[in-house]
Amino acid sequence: MTILARLKTETRAAHDRIEAAMDLDRRIASREGYRDLLVRFYGFHRAWEETAAGQAPDRSFFERRRKTQLLARDLEALGLKSEDIIRLPQCRPLMPLPVPEAVLGSMYVVEGSTLGGAVIARDVERRLGLDAETGCAYFRSYGRDIAAMWKLFGAVLLEASSPEADDVIVESAQKTFDVMHDWLCETP
After folding, report:
1. φ and ψ at 16, to 5 degrees?
2. How many domains does the chain contain in total?
3. Which InterPro entries match (predicted)?
4. How many Cβ atoms are within 10 Å of 148's Cβ, its own excluded?
Protein backbone atom coordinates (compact mmCIF):
# COMPACT_ATOMS: atom_id res chain seq x y z
CA MET A 1 0.00 0.00 0.00
CA THR A 2 1.44 3.38 -0.97
CA ILE A 3 1.59 6.21 1.54
CA LEU A 4 -1.19 7.98 -0.38
CA ALA A 5 -3.45 4.93 -0.16
CA ARG A 6 -2.60 4.47 3.51
CA LEU A 7 -3.36 8.13 4.27
CA LYS A 8 -6.69 7.96 2.47
CA THR A 9 -7.67 4.80 4.34
CA GLU A 10 -6.41 5.72 7.79
CA THR A 11 -7.73 9.30 7.81
CA ARG A 12 -11.14 8.59 6.22
CA ALA A 13 -13.03 8.75 9.53
CA ALA A 14 -11.37 12.05 10.49
CA HIS A 15 -12.08 13.49 7.05
CA ASP A 16 -15.74 12.46 7.24
CA ARG A 17 -16.01 13.86 10.78
CA ILE A 18 -14.78 17.33 9.83
CA GLU A 19 -16.83 17.40 6.65
CA ALA A 20 -20.01 16.62 8.58
CA ALA A 21 -19.26 19.13 11.34
CA MET A 22 -18.34 22.05 9.07
CA ASP A 23 -21.96 22.76 8.08
CA LEU A 24 -20.81 24.58 4.96
CA ASP A 25 -24.34 25.17 3.67
CA ARG A 26 -25.07 27.36 6.67
CA ARG A 27 -21.64 29.00 6.72
CA ILE A 28 -21.73 30.13 3.10
CA ALA A 29 -25.40 31.12 3.09
CA SER A 30 -24.50 34.74 3.96
CA ARG A 31 -21.54 37.05 3.51
CA GLU A 32 -21.21 37.34 7.29
CA GLY A 33 -21.17 33.57 7.81
CA TYR A 34 -18.70 33.17 4.95
CA ARG A 35 -16.43 35.89 6.36
CA ASP A 36 -16.52 34.19 9.77
CA LEU A 37 -15.52 30.90 8.12
CA LEU A 38 -12.58 32.62 6.41
CA VAL A 39 -11.54 34.12 9.76
CA ARG A 40 -11.30 30.59 11.19
CA PHE A 41 -9.33 29.36 8.16
CA TYR A 42 -7.02 32.36 8.48
CA GLY A 43 -6.36 31.56 12.16
CA PHE A 44 -5.51 27.97 11.30
CA HIS A 45 -3.32 28.69 8.28
CA ARG A 46 -1.40 31.54 9.87
CA ALA A 47 -0.42 29.42 12.88
CA TRP A 48 0.14 26.30 10.79
CA GLU A 49 2.33 28.01 8.19
CA GLU A 50 4.50 29.61 10.86
CA THR A 51 4.98 26.26 12.59
CA ALA A 52 5.44 24.12 9.47
CA ALA A 53 7.82 26.44 7.61
CA GLY A 54 10.75 25.66 9.89
CA GLN A 55 10.56 21.90 9.28
CA ALA A 56 9.30 21.82 5.68
CA PRO A 57 11.42 19.40 3.66
CA ASP A 58 11.65 21.77 0.68
CA ARG A 59 11.28 25.48 1.35
CA SER A 60 10.23 26.55 -2.18
CA PHE A 61 7.79 23.64 -2.45
CA PHE A 62 6.22 24.74 0.84
CA GLU A 63 6.20 28.47 0.04
CA ARG A 64 4.17 27.95 -3.13
CA ARG A 65 1.46 26.36 -1.01
CA ARG A 66 0.98 29.09 1.59
CA LYS A 67 -2.61 30.33 1.89
CA THR A 68 -2.48 33.05 4.55
CA GLN A 69 -2.05 35.89 2.05
CA LEU A 70 -5.00 34.66 -0.01
CA LEU A 71 -7.14 34.57 3.10
CA ALA A 72 -6.03 38.07 4.10
CA ARG A 73 -6.91 39.32 0.61
CA ASP A 74 -10.36 37.73 0.84
CA LEU A 75 -10.99 39.17 4.29
CA GLU A 76 -10.00 42.64 3.06
CA ALA A 77 -12.39 42.24 0.12
CA LEU A 78 -15.09 41.39 2.66
CA GLY A 79 -14.47 44.56 4.67
CA LEU A 80 -11.82 43.79 7.28
CA LYS A 81 -8.88 46.13 7.61
CA SER A 82 -5.35 44.70 7.40
CA GLU A 83 -4.54 45.84 10.96
CA ASP A 84 -7.59 43.90 12.21
CA ILE A 85 -6.68 40.81 10.19
CA ILE A 86 -3.21 40.48 11.71
CA ARG A 87 -4.80 40.57 15.19
CA LEU A 88 -7.25 37.74 14.48
CA PRO A 89 -6.98 34.77 16.83
CA GLN A 90 -4.68 31.96 15.76
CA CYS A 91 -5.18 28.26 16.20
CA ARG A 92 -3.49 27.13 19.41
CA PRO A 93 -2.36 24.64 20.43
CA LEU A 94 -1.22 23.30 17.12
CA MET A 95 -0.11 19.72 16.54
CA PRO A 96 3.65 19.22 16.89
CA LEU A 97 5.60 19.22 13.63
CA PRO A 98 9.09 18.26 14.80
CA VAL A 99 10.39 16.65 11.59
CA PRO A 100 9.88 17.06 7.83
CA GLU A 101 7.79 13.89 7.64
CA ALA A 102 5.34 15.35 10.16
CA VAL A 103 5.01 18.45 7.99
CA LEU A 104 4.26 16.26 4.98
CA GLY A 105 1.54 14.43 6.90
CA SER A 106 0.03 17.71 7.97
CA MET A 107 0.32 19.06 4.42
CA TYR A 108 -1.72 16.08 3.22
CA VAL A 109 -4.68 17.49 5.13
CA VAL A 110 -4.07 21.09 4.07
CA GLU A 111 -3.53 20.19 0.41
CA GLY A 112 -6.55 17.90 0.47
CA SER A 113 -8.71 20.73 1.75
CA THR A 114 -7.49 22.75 -1.22
CA LEU A 115 -8.99 20.13 -3.52
CA GLY A 116 -12.31 20.47 -1.71
CA GLY A 117 -11.97 24.23 -1.92
CA ALA A 118 -12.56 24.15 -5.67
CA VAL A 119 -16.05 22.73 -5.05
CA ILE A 120 -16.70 25.25 -2.28
CA ALA A 121 -15.57 28.09 -4.57
CA ARG A 122 -18.30 27.22 -7.07
CA ASP A 123 -20.92 27.29 -4.30
CA VAL A 124 -19.60 30.61 -2.98
CA GLU A 125 -19.74 32.13 -6.44
CA ARG A 126 -23.26 30.82 -7.05
CA ARG A 127 -24.64 31.84 -3.64
CA LEU A 128 -22.71 35.02 -2.84
CA GLY A 129 -21.44 36.15 -6.23
CA LEU A 130 -17.80 36.16 -5.07
CA ASP A 131 -14.84 35.22 -7.23
CA ALA A 132 -11.07 35.20 -6.76
CA GLU A 133 -10.94 38.99 -6.98
CA THR A 134 -13.90 39.77 -4.72
CA GLY A 135 -13.43 37.41 -1.76
CA CYS A 136 -12.90 33.83 -2.93
CA ALA A 137 -9.16 33.68 -3.70
CA TYR A 138 -8.48 31.16 -0.90
CA PHE A 139 -10.88 28.54 -2.20
CA ARG A 140 -9.55 29.07 -5.72
CA SER A 141 -5.93 29.08 -4.55
CA TYR A 142 -4.35 27.03 -7.34
CA GLY A 143 -6.88 27.86 -10.02
CA ARG A 144 -6.43 25.63 -13.04
CA ASP A 145 -3.24 24.17 -11.55
CA ILE A 146 -5.06 22.34 -8.74
CA ALA A 147 -4.66 18.85 -10.24
CA ALA A 148 -1.00 19.45 -11.10
CA MET A 149 -0.27 20.77 -7.59
CA TRP A 150 -1.93 17.71 -6.01
CA LYS A 151 -0.01 15.37 -8.31
CA LEU A 152 3.28 17.07 -7.42
CA PHE A 153 2.47 16.85 -3.73
CA GLY A 154 1.71 13.14 -4.13
CA ALA A 155 5.06 12.62 -5.83
CA VAL A 156 6.87 14.32 -2.93
CA LEU A 157 5.01 12.12 -0.44
CA LEU A 158 5.92 8.99 -2.36
CA GLU A 159 9.56 10.06 -2.49
CA ALA A 160 9.64 10.61 1.28
CA SER A 161 7.93 7.31 1.99
CA SER A 162 9.58 4.58 4.04
CA PRO A 163 8.15 2.31 6.74
CA GLU A 164 9.39 4.62 9.52
CA ALA A 165 8.45 7.86 7.74
CA ASP A 166 5.00 6.58 6.83
CA ASP A 167 4.03 6.09 10.48
CA VAL A 168 5.04 9.69 11.26
CA ILE A 169 3.23 11.01 8.16
CA VAL A 170 -0.03 9.22 8.99
CA GLU A 171 0.05 10.17 12.67
CA SER A 172 0.64 13.82 11.79
CA ALA A 173 -2.22 13.81 9.28
CA GLN A 174 -4.57 12.36 11.88
CA LYS A 175 -3.54 14.97 14.46
CA THR A 176 -3.94 17.73 11.88
CA PHE A 177 -7.48 16.62 11.12
CA ASP A 178 -8.27 16.70 14.86
CA VAL A 179 -6.81 20.17 15.38
CA MET A 180 -8.42 21.53 12.23
CA HIS A 181 -11.78 20.05 13.25
CA ASP A 182 -11.64 21.56 16.72
CA TRP A 183 -10.56 24.97 15.39
CA LEU A 184 -12.85 25.28 12.38
CA CYS A 185 -15.92 23.82 14.00
CA GLU A 186 -15.60 25.71 17.29
CA THR A 187 -17.84 28.71 17.72
CA PRO A 188 -15.51 31.73 18.05
Report:
1. -65, -35
2. 1
3. Haem_Oase-like, Haem_Oase-like_multi-hlx
4. 10
